[in-house]
User: What shape does this take?
Amino acid sequence: MRVIGLGLLGLGNVGAGVVKLLADNAAAIEARLGARVEVRRIAVQQAEKRRLVEVDKKLVTTRARDVIDDPSVDVVIELIGGTEPAREYVLGAIAKGKHVVTANKALLAYHGDELLAACAENNVEIYYEASVGGGIPLIRALREGLASDRIDEVIGIVNGTSNFILTQMTEQGRDFNEVLAEAQKAGYAEADPTLDVGGGDAAHKLAVLAALCFGTKIDFTKVFFEGIDKLTQRDFAYAERFGYTIKLLAIGKDHGDSIELRVHPTMVPKRWLLASVGGVFNAVYVNSQALGQSMYYGRGAGMMPTAVAVVSDVIEIARTLLAGAPGTRASVPRAKRPERRIRDIGELESRYYLRFGVEDRPGVLAQLAGILGDHDISIAEVVQEGRRDPQRPASVVIVTHRARESNVQAALAAIGKLPAASEPTQLVRIYETRP
Ligand code: HSE
Assistant: This one.
């Protein structure tokens, strides 16, 4: 029986899951493939560290090159994360004619084009199902299931840590820092929590999705992102009052001549499907021209869900290797289209929730309304909290009709200079769903 040799770079949470899944499902995988899949080499940083799974010590090395150069390794699985040295290792493996499976969204967001070009040159594939949505077979659905369609919008809840925190803040009225600590303990959070709660991780994932869905190069530095770390319980209370739920959305839209890419906390109507995606779950909602709306839901993080995506990629590569086929060109975008401009956030047209902290005295509301009006921003709703404590600023909340972001930012800068302005203004964009 033929054996497909695997080399692992990294044996953390996901690496251990891969080893476990290959062992637990060995018979089923063998039956499906007509071949065995075997881990032949594992590179780790510290050889003596305690692991979540037992592995043969002879397989373990502290040098990535031992894995990349091993002639018995057909597929290199990169699970170390971060851009360097992951990029160097992956390029090294590709140059050696090895296929690559990676869960590394940061690497793909920054260097995806370079890696795809190297793959094409060396006639190998890079698979990355685990990089977005963990165990959800999402990349496969977008790449194969929708291969015949044109996608014009992709909206995801793609950071489980943020979604868990937002869900707890919404349902339990809990404090941001307390819930973050809990998420970190549960093992969902990135090593650097600012990547999760600052929106960077979701932005990396959006770049991966957009390149695939819209068939274009993405310059990651142009992806706008904001995190959930400035939201307060007051914003959740107002969201509830206006019939919204707050979600960290990664939004990608193909406008034909340009592409809109943004990640930020968003007020979404409570009745919308994405509003009910709670806890650590992820979901990606897609609008494509022929199919219309579709949604993909499941566990976006964790040891075994992520391992499922990695091992399924390995199986797909193994099929190609066993067939002796030249490769499926799966990593190439579905339909290559011309490179398009990524829109600046200032060009966005949206409705906005604005919460002002101002002194409670005559004429202040008129000043706010005047400045908004001067910037072509029309008010849809206003709520002012009664004065409870004369020492503290009053909260004035304004929900706008559709307005241009550059106008909103200019208005907020002007409002910030008013003598009555006592706190920085809170801004949350509102997503209007299709009927
Ligand atoms: N830290 C990520 C999340 C999981 O919280 O969703 C890995 O992509």
